[in-house]
Design goal:
Blueprint lengths: L2 H8 L3 H19 L4 H13 L1 H11 L5 H4 L16 E4 L4 E3 L3 E5 L2 H14 L3 E6 L6 H15 L3 E7 L9 H8 L3 E5 L19 E4 L3 E5 L21 E5 L2 H17 L22 E6 L7 H12 L3 E5 L3 E2 L2 H12 L3 E7 L5 H17 L2 E5 L8 E4 L3 E5 L3 E2 H5 L3 E6 L2 H16 L1 E3 H4 L6 H12 L5
Parallel strand pairs: 4-5, 5-6, 11-13, 12-17, 13-14
Antiparallel strand pairs: 1-2, 2-10, 3-9, 4-7, 7-8, 8-9, 10-18, 11-15, 14-19, 15-16, 16-18
Helix pairs in contact: 2-3, 2-4, 3-4, 6-7, 7-8, 11-12, 12-16
């Protein structure tokens, strides 16, 4: 037998055979996994019709709660064995504490000044986790302040998402390490055999100071999110500084993420019990986390619960709106039963494809009686929920499939009247600078746009 001729005959088709072989394996894996039908269909479509594109994309971004990649990260539980003095109850989703004080950060100036002040006043430790640390004047200023505190003997730890803050350590970041601070990257995607991690991103924004005060919200660190002066180009966002027992849960989330990122270079830190603050009006806060390190999808389920339990009115604020069928139908049913339902999104976000994909969902909501408002004063990046003027939420989670079901996220639910009123005032400000969906709704849109919207919506589970 002429093996050379046999090899020459097979070689030109080898790539095709390998591609379709991998496609077959990935399709089998898709069918085994407990995914939403829309997600499964979207991936099947891409893998079958364009395997040369679909297979690499799935290997990069197809994973959700992949045990192989996350087995070293312990399951995250915010309910401790010992009940802190501030605990009032264990909810189906997390731990509610009281005796907290909240200071809401309505503007980028508030956020920047508060972050700088907390860094400068920290005495023992500073722990910061962020999706994006921009290589601009704001990013450099924050790292400079962290380096200064590290030289003063304060323990400084900076956790960056490896995709959101992609790139090598720059000179100003090396300055922090030289000063004694530590920098770790969450889920590196290099070398090439780590590409399967690309879909599992740490989108949490947490900054803990002396394990007694913490900042969470939607802001990353960079000039797009914060700064010392007014900027018309800055995104509108929202955040909160929390003091009190709720910080224990935020500290525990950071500690678990840090431990995972450090791998073997980790020294366990004893967790502190924080007593309720005095002279606060109950200060009830429930900290929620979601991601591959949580059992099920607690944050998503908590949002659904808030929607279903709203008796009079409900408001959602999100920069990107790409819901699953259950959440979309829940809002539609709530509106059709006579409840006032409101959704606030930016008129134009920083992702044009998601704006196209959301149009179908916004039209459905509008036609069902939901008041859809488009923020028309720049990019709105804030996240929020308000139910009956009694429950409010903010954090890092967007109302889209990736944020709700794939990313590592964190949020805080507020139950005290003073805290809820702060979220109400923020939402009122957004409303004043928004236009109604009907004012921008073009019923005679072009055929090309309709096709683009349909294609974008078809790929929604992949966005």
């Amino acid at each position: 037998m002429d093996y050379r001729a046999y090899i020459d005959a097979i070689l030109p088709h080898l790539g095709t055979l390998i591609g379709f072989g991998l496609a077959f394996v990935l399709i089998a894996r898709l069918m085994r996994e407990k995914r939403r039908p829309s997600n499964t269909f979207a991936w099947l479509l891409v893998i079958v019709l364009a395997p040369y594109i679909g297979v690499p994309l799935f290997l990069l971004f197809g994973g959700r709660k992949i045990a192989r990649l996350t087995r070293n990260k312990e399951s995250l539980s915010l309910i401790s064995d010992t009940t802190a003095k501030g605990t009032i109850s264990v909810s189906p989703f997390g731990l509610i504490t009281r005796g907290n004080r909240s200071s809401f950060l309505h503007t980028g100036i508030d956020a920047f000044k508060t972050l700088i002040r907390e860094i400068q006043e920290a005495k023992e430790s500073i722990d910061i986790a962020t999706f994006i640390l921009s290589h601009d004047a704001i990013g450099r200023r924050i790292v400079k302040e962290l380096s200064k505190k590290s030289r003063e003997g304060v323990e400084v730890r900076l956790l960056l998402d490896a995709v959101g803050s992609f790139g090598k350590k720059t000179l100003y970041m090396l300055e922090l390490e030289k000063a004694g601070g530590r920098i770790e990257r969450f889920m590196p995607v290099l070398p090439i055999w780590s590409w399967g991690r690309a879909n599992l991103r740490n989108h949490r924004k947490i900054a803990c100071f002396d394990r007694k005060r913490a900042i969470i919200g939607g802001r990353n660190i960079g000039r797009d999110y914060m700064g010392p002066t007014v900027s018309n180009k800055r995104w509108k966002d929202f955040g909160v500084l929390i003091e009190g027992p709720a910080v224990m849960q935020l500290s525990a989330i950071f500690e678990a993420d840090w431990k995972f990122a450090c791998s073997k270079n980790y020294n366990a830190r004893e967790m502190l019990n924080i007593d309720p603050l005095e002279n606060v009006d109950t200060g009830e806060i429930e900290i929620m986390a979601s991601g591959p390190d949580t059992k099920g999808d607690p944050l998503y389920e908590k949002i659904l619960s808030a929607i279903h339990e709203a008796d009079e009115e409900l408001t959602l604020v999100t920069p990107y709106y790409l819901p699953d069928e259950v959440l979309q139908r829940s809002l539609i049913v709530k509106a059709r039963t006579g409840k006032r339902v409101k959704l606030i999104v930016p008129r134009k976000s920083n992702h044009p494809v998601t704006d196209l994909a959301r149009q179908h969902y916004l039209r459905e909501l509008h036609e069902a009686g939901v008041e859809v408002l488009l923020f028309d004063d720049g990019m709105m990046h804030g996240k929020g929920l308000l139910a009956d003027g009694k429950v409010a939420m903010t954090g890092s989670v967007n109302i889209d499939l990736r944020s709700l079901f794939v990313n590592y996220e964190v949020a805080a639910f507020f139950y005290s009247p003073s805290d809820v009123s702060e979220v109400v005032s923020w939402i009122r400000m957004l409303e004043e600078k928004s236009i109604g969906f009907q004012e921008s709704y073009d019923r005679k849109s072009s055929l090309a746009r309709e096709i683009a919207e349909d294609l974008s919506r078809l790929l929604t589970p992949l966005l």
